[in-house]
Every structure is written in structure tokens, then in C-alpha cells.
Amino acid sequence: MLLLRSRKGIARQSALLGRDTSKRDLADAVAKGSLVRIRRSWLALPDADPQLVSAARAGVVLGCVTQAQRLGLWVHVDTARPHVCAPPSAGGVRIEREQTTGDLKAIVHWFAPVVARPPHVLEDGIENALVAIAQCQPFEHALAVWESALNKSLIDRQILARLRLPGLARDILAEATPFADSGLETIVPRRLRWLRLRILHQIWVHGHRVDFLIGDRLVLQIDGGHHVGPQREADNKHDAELMLRGYHVVRVGYSQVMDDWPSVQQLIMNAVAEGLHLAR
User: Fold this and answer.
1) Strand 107-110 relative to strand 83-86: parallel, antiparallel, unpaired?
2) Is the separation of the CB atoms in 149 and 130 below 8 Å?
3) Distances, alpha carbon 267 to alpha carbons 210, 222, 250, 276, in Å
4) Predicted confidence band of residue 1 (pLDDT cuts 50, 70, 90)
5) Digit-coded pLDDT (tens) for 90-147
């Protein structure tokens, strides 16, 4: 049981067999309900991670944006359907379908891993997850995940550079830096770089951190779901203070940036056209 706990509640039967544990012991545990058999070769505790159990049952590994999310990386895409991976020649992959729609319950990425997957794992390595993301997600969303991984030191840029990466992954690596702490810090400057203005992110201005400072005086603040109640009042107070000190504040919502970027860009373009980004 301790070995299973150390492996997130699920492991191959072969890994559990030893001097003190026989196949008979494991079969008895399954009969008593203290273990659950997942297909033929996997055993799990009743409270094991359900995503790992589903991966073992389907004969795949958790990967792409699902694994990135499990690692605490920035992910924008809806991961209601898990992303899983399997080699192109894998046999025995069984993905269940939704009863109402007939859609597969998981999105399967069939590709040869850049780093070999051991047979006893159910989660893809970070290198393979990033390669899958490069091929699955829009470029800037994939770039944001890669930069999140670099920022959290989950991968070394030099190690990635030595791997046999496919073209899209290599293009992302060429642009990726470790300085962005969130996806917005990747996406917003990239979308505005054509303005050829200095864009600083997460800097302190008169006692408060601002999301972006464009030029000298144009502040872009992006609200998440927590900007309500006292937080909203504090933000409004800081906005007023900044404007009294000669700054211009553009405040938008996260969904506007991700789903309605043209309207956000127009606000910024208008402010720049009026010279509101310049010190006076």
C-alpha cells in the first residue's frame, strides 16, 4: 500500500510483486476491495487519482495541456476533455465515448515521443508534453505554456535545444524566454510589439503593481475573476491615483484579451494615437 501511495495510488502489478507480495496476495486484496484491477496489468487504490485510472484503463498517458495543467503551468484551453498521448503504433488503446454525443471522452495525440516513455508511467514527461502542445495549440498559446515551464524551471532551455524537436516546437523554442510569469505576460506584449513601444509587465508604479506599462504613461490593467468587492474598490482607488499623477489607465477583463482582442487593441491604439503613452 505504501508503494502505491508513493505512485499516486496506481501502479503496474509487476512493480508491486516482491519478496513480501505475491500475485495471490494482490488477488486477495482485489477480492476484498482494498485494490481495484484496472485492465490486466494495473492495480489501483479505490481513491486513486481518477485521471490516472482513466489513462491506465485506456492504455495511454496523460499529456499535452492536461499534463501542463497538472504541473501548474499556465493553460488557456478548456481541459474538460483530457488530452492524452500514445505512440503511432500503439495497440490496445481504448477511449470511451460520451453516451449522448458519441464523442470520444479524451483527445488523443498520436506521436512518437522525443524522450522515451517508460512502460510504467501514466503521465508524459515535460518535454513530450511541450512538444504535443506545440502541435495542438495556437502558436502564442503554446508559447505561453513553454514560457511558463521555463519560468518555473521545470525544463532547461539547453536541454530542449539538444532534442530532436519537430519544426513547430523548434520555432516556439526560438522565441521562448523564461521571464513571463503568466500567459498574459507572453501574449499581450507579443500582440503589441508591432507598435514598437517599450512594454514593461508587473512593475511597481507609485506603490502598486501594474500589469503592463506601455511607453511612459499608458497603463494596461487586466482583471480576472477575483476583481470584485474590496479588490475592485482598491483597483479603482489606484486607477484614480495614477490618473491624477498623469498616467492613463486602460482596464479590461481577461476574457476580452483572450476572446475579443481587436476591441482591446483598438483602445490601446486610440490611446497611443492621442499621445497618452508619453510623459508630459
Assistant:
1) parallel
2) yes
3) 17, 13, 8, 11
4) low
5) 777 888 888 788 888 889 999 889 999 888 899 999 999 999 999 999 999 999 999 9
Residue with cell 501548474: 72
Q: Please calculate the CA angle 87-91-94 and round it to the nearest 5 degrees.
A: 100
Q: What is the pLDDT of residue 2?
A: 67
Closest listed residue to residue 118, CA positions, set 196, 61, 203: 61
Pairing label, strands 61-62, 83-86:
antiparallel
3-state secondary structure string across the chain:
CHHHHHCCCEEEHHHHCECCECHHHHHHHHHHCCCEEECCCEEECCCCCHHHHHHHHHCCEECHHHHHHHCCCCCCCCCCCCEEEECCCCCCCCCCECCCCCCECCEEEECCCCCCCCCCCCECCHHHHHHHHHHHCCHHHHHHHHHHHHHCCCCCHHHHHHCCCCHHHHHHHHHCCCCCCCHHHHHHHHHHHHHCCCEEEEEEECCEEEEEEECCCEEEEEECCCCCHHHHHHHHHHHHHHHHCCCEEEEEEHHHHHHCHHHHHHHHHHHHHCCCCCCC
Grid cell of 277 as nine digits:
503613452
Domain ranges of the chain: 2-48, 58-175, 183-273
Inter-residue contact 108 to 60 (CB < 8 Å): yes
d(CA 82, CA 9): 19
Tell me the pLDDT tens digit for each residue of 38-84: 988 899 999 999 999 999 999 999 999 999 999 999 998 776 789 99
Alpha carbon distance 204, 30 (integer Å): 58
Per CATH, which fold does 183-273 belong to? Endonuclease; Chain A (3.40.960)
Q: How many CB atoms lie within 10 A of CB 260?
A: 12
